Every structure is written in C-alpha cells, then in structure tokens.
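Sanity check

After download, print the first record. It should look like this:
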Amino acid sequence: MSCDISRGRLEPCKDSVGGLNAVYFINKGSITAGYDTTDTDVIDAVAGTPDAYKFDIKGASTYTENITSSRENGTTTFEQVLELQLTKLTKEDHKTVKLLAFGSPTVLVEDNNGNVFVAGLEHGLDVSGGTIVSGAAMGDMSGYTLTFSGMERVPANFLDDTITSAGISVTEGV
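Expected structure tokens:
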C-alpha cells in the first residue's frame, strides 16, 4: 500500500449538519463486506442477508473516531466511540441493553447527512461504560446511556447506497 496522498480538498459548502439519526446493531461475525472496486473505503454489498436491529436516536448521541499513530511502533489505529442516549426505561430495553453489553456487535451509524458508517467491522464494538438512570426531577432523563468502544485497523467504512439495498435485513424498533 502506498502512503502517498493523491488528491487535495476544496473548502466544502456549508450544507452539512451534526448529529445522529439512527444506529443499527448487527451481531458480531454476521456481516461480510464487499468493497467498491475503485474505492476500498466504501462497502457496496454484504454477503448473505445479515439482520440489523434499528434504534432511532435523537439528541445527545455521538460518534467519534480517534486516530492514534506511532512512528516509533510503526502503527496506526482507529478508536471508534459511539455514545448513545436512549430515553425511557422499559423491561424490553433492559434485556436488550444487557445483551448489547455482553456482546460485541458491528454497528451501522447513520448521521443526519444520510451517511452510514460501518463501525466495528473487524473486531466489533464493546460496551465500555454507561448508566441506567431514573432521573431525580420530573423533567430529568429516564433511560440508558451507553458508550461503545472499538479499535480497528482502518476508519469505519462508508456504506454505499441504502442499508437494505446493500443486502441487510432491517428490523425496526417496536
């Protein structure tokens, strides 16, 4: 792999927004990516039809990738961090949160610009922290906060087109 850059970047239009729209959890090992032949940073198909479980999110949820590169070690890693705020405590969600904490899912992260990133593709994301809170005052948040963390060799790939056209079976929330 060549390490030389091959393009520049113009100042983009001011038409981008922050925030996340939804996340989709896929059980670890269920997704095998097919890459665009001209751009290996884009997944344009998946093998089989993996099941993805959609969580609608609003507000304080974020996705961040931290790059760590060491000249001394000759390594570069990408830490993927997903912080979710899921409002309202329910017995069904309680069980799901427990299963998410026990597992290491691959997570599709959909931002408010329509981009979908495949986080934890190789190693999965682990719940590294979180809370189950009732709130103190009537106006406080009652629900779950979860922090997922993972370490990958490459940044999260973009998923080309739509999730279902890439061959992923989506189960909506109830």
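If your output differs, re-run the checksum step. Summary of this record's structure: The first strand starts at residue 20 and ends at 26.
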